[in-house]
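Structure ticket #2291
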Amino acid sequence: MDGDGGIPLAGTYRTPEGVTSNVMEVLGRDWTDWTAHDDTYVVDGENVVVLARYTARNNATGKDLDVRVAHHFVVRGGLIVRFEQFVDTALVREAMA
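Resolution: structure written out below.
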């Protein structure tokens, strides 16, 4: 399945349960040792940007993934109300092909 962001699992999820069942459980099924390594946080009011790296091994291909990412969170009242991910989709697809 291809979501609206160019890679599988991309899309709009409106509840924590939607993220858990449509993203986290699928990552656990399709990848071994999926890890987000956060290294830098940039905060500007309600905007939080996290610069990070994903590492994992694709279970179908056996290929490793090592890709830089940026996560943009909007935080209001202590709750995440929006999240957007920026990642090199070509590297993700390469590990899956």
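Closing remark: The first helix runs from residue 16 to 30.
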